[in-house]
Design brief:
- The structure is a single chain.
- By secondary structure, the protein is an alpha/beta fold.
- The protein has 2 domains: 228 residues, P-loop containing nucleotide triphosphate hydrolases (Rossmann fold, 3-Layer(aba) Sandwich), CATH 3.40.50; 67 residues, Histone, subunit A, CATH 1.10.20.
- It has 14 helices and 6 strands.
- Helix 10 crosses helix 13 and helix 11 crosses helix 12.
């Protein structure tokens, strides 16, 4: 069975650096598992690999969507699975790099109901608002349009069950009923998980520094250009740490200093949620961060490479 490598970790942990270093040791192509780097225009705030880094090794799933296009972990899992086998056909190693735990799990293990419970805060908020404003009939009609089997099952219009089914669909891109029917497919590859860690204080220092650098590097100008193109600030793609704080500043809701501080704070909270997700996976081999080359060599020595 062929091998796939995953380099994961919280934001600002140095995943890109380690992946570029590893690409110098093995013949690989990188699959980005980042739910925000998929969008065009979101460059500074998502810390995309630089053009130089992307020229060193082929990257996939970066800049593939416009800001108003729908995407999900389920779609990513299906598309990236096809890509993995294309990379295998070239006798290359697929290297999955990112911090979006749901995307990684969708690709390497498959999605199940329990996978969404840590990832539906925004979805639940929007659906709850719709329920309060428009009532259960509106949600039920939406469910009928996307998942008729679940709608038939919930004819009593139980709000909790309808919300749950809609949450699952919006979080994963798959219908709730289909998820119950499908059995987990046996993957045709083995996954080696490698995580990069720092102690909390050091990680938070890195996060704070990155946030400051993003603002100094033109996050404000980038956000202004996006809004100037007519994109709604309410888009899911712009509900991203850094951009949402910048939009609040541009709208005059908060000061620039407060926006930068909130960017730091919310990024730290995001990193904490990422680690909560990753800790569920007991197969991850954790490597100390700080030296991308050392991490790459540890991964190289820890994997049994074959084509």
């Amino acid at each position: 069975m062929k091998n796939v490598i995953v380099i994961l970790g919280p934001t600002a942990s140095g995943k890109t650096e380690a992946s570029i270093e590893l690409s110098e040791l093995i013949d690989c192509e990188i699959i980005s598992a980042d739910s925000r780097q998929i969008y065009r225009k979101l460059d500074i705030g998502t810390a995309k690999p630089t053009n130089e880094e992307q020229q060193k090794v082929k990257h996939h799933f970066i800049d593939i969507l416009n800001l108003d296009e729908y995407y999900s972990a389920g779609i990513f899992g299906e598309q990236a699975d096809i890509l993995i086998h294309e990379i295998f056909s070239k006798n290359k190693m697929p290297l999955i790099v990112g911090g979006s735990g749901l995307y990684i799990k969708a690709l390497c293990e498959g999605l199940f109901e329990e996978d969404i419970k840590y990832n539906v805060d925004e979805v639940r908020e929007n659906l709850t608002k719709k329920y309060i404003e428009q009532g259960i009939d509106s949600l039920y009609n939406e469910l009928k349009s996307i998942d008729i089997d679940s709608a038939e099952l919930y004819k009593d219009k139980n709000p909790r069950r309808i919300l749950r089914a809609l949450e699952y669909y919006h979080a994963t891109g798959n219908s709730f009923s289909k998820a119950h029917l499908e059995k987990k497919e046996e993957k045709k590859f083995e996954t080696g998980y490698f995580g990069i860690y720092f102690d909390r204080d050091e990680l938070y220092k890195r996060i704070n520094l990155r946030a400051e650098m993003m603002w100094e590097s033109g996050l404000e100008t980038e956000t202004q250009k996006i809004l100037g193109m007519g994109y709604s600030p309410e888009l899911n793609s712009l509900n991203t740490v850094g951009y949402k704080e910048c939009i609040a500043y541009l709208n005059g809701d908060i000061t620039r200093e407060r926006a930068i501080e909130l960017t730091k704070q919310n990024t730290r909270r995001y990193a904490k949620r990422q680690m909560t997700w990753f800790r569920k996976n007991k197969d991850i081999i954790w490597l100390e961060g700080g030296n991308g080359r050392a991490i790459a060599e540890n991964i190289f020595n820890g994997m049994n490479f074959h084509s």
